[in-house]
Design goal:
Strand content: under 5%
Helix content: over 70%
Largest sheet: none
Order of helices and strands: HHHHHHHHHHHHHHHHH
């Protein structure tokens, strides 16, 4: 049966359920690499759909939870920071949107990173049965993270539009650059940490600990100008070397800036110089890291089945 799976057309295995694939005998080694993952996109899509469906299995509201949870989260932050304690009054206009825009980017990155780290261990039964590149599992978790980020973006758009935000080419380019940066960096880390987690389960705990720092190391709960004011330009430059700080600033440029009374003045005050240049450089560096991560993954993945 494993030989029929290898030689069959793309449409045939796509009709099989993952439970049927898990019952197959051990599969022979398959070609590896991210390019091979793209070539097997029919199986990648099946893996993504199964992961999404399993998350809401047994619930009454199902996928509506992906909208309800971020909506409640946004209302809580709005009430707590903007109504209760007046955070941002006089300094940060529409602080709740400033905060939630950062949360969207941080959520996408942390779910990509943490999900990718655990992907091989969580799919151990499939890894030994399917002749597919094992990079497929971290990639699938990145796509699942993107799927769950879409409702958050929709929730973000509602108050933005109500406050007069309109899409502009520069802002959309900034948001797209930010998501590309977070995706490349999160997938690179997910590849390395996923194979490391196979050999030592503590690696997943390390990844969770690292992602906790992300929330406080980006200009989300506070503006970037606070870093510059409190610690000076030298420290601010080191702060901006954090790729996720750059990604958060880019999504804030795409959405939050457009909700303020004077977007140009707000961008001049709260956005650092050379935002796009820095973002493009960090994206290029992240793509190089992704290539290196894939090579590290390829060197170690042969030992993955026996370790699982």
């Amino acid at each position: 049966m494993s030989e029929r799976l290898v030689s069959s057309t793309p449409a045939e295995p796509a009709r099989r359920t993952l439970s049927e694939l898990e019952s197959l005998p051990l599969a022979p080694p398959a070609a590896t690499g991210l390019r091979e993952v793209v070539r097997r996109r029919y199986l990648l899509g099946m893996l993504v759909r199964n992961t999404i469906q399993s998350r809401y299995q047994g619930t009454v509201l199902g996928w509506l939870w992906s909208y309800l949870q971020p909506a409640i989260r946004f209302c809580m932050f709005y009430f707590l920071f903007q109504v209760m304690i007046g955070r941002g009054e006089g300094t940060i206009e529409n602080f709740a949107i400033h905060l939630f825009a950062g949360m969207v980017m941080v959520h996408f990155f942390t779910e990509t990173f943490n999900g990718g780290t655990q992907s091989l261990v969580q799919n151990r039964s499939l890894i030994t049965k399917l002749p597919v590149p094992r990079e497929m599992f971290p990639v699938a978790r990145m796509l699942v993270a993107a799927w769950h980020t879409i409702p958050m973006i929709i929730i973000l758009l509602v108050p933005c539009i109500a406050l007069g935000w309109r899409p502009d080419l520069v802002g959309m380019a900034a948001a797209l650059l930010g998501f590309s940066l977070a995706a490349a960096l999160g997938l690179a880390l997910g590849l390395v940490f996923s194979v490391g987690n196979v050999f030592m389960r503590d690696v997943s705990k390390i990844a969770q600990t690292l992602t906790q720092f992300v929330t406080f190391s980006v200009p989300m709960m506070y503006p970037f100008t606070l870093v510059d004011t409190r610690f000076g330009g030298d420290v601010a430059n080191y702060y901006l070397a954090n790729p996720m700080a750059e990604a958060v600033l880019l999504i804030q440029r795409g959405f939050w800036i457009g909700t303020t009374a004077d977007p140009e003045a707000t961008a001049a005050v709260h956005m650092p110089d050379h935002l796009f240049t820095r973002g493009l450089i960090m994206l290029a560096v992240s793509l190089v890291l992704l290539v290196l991560a894939q090579r590290v993954f390829a060197r170690l993945e042969a030992k993955v089945p026996e370790r699982l």
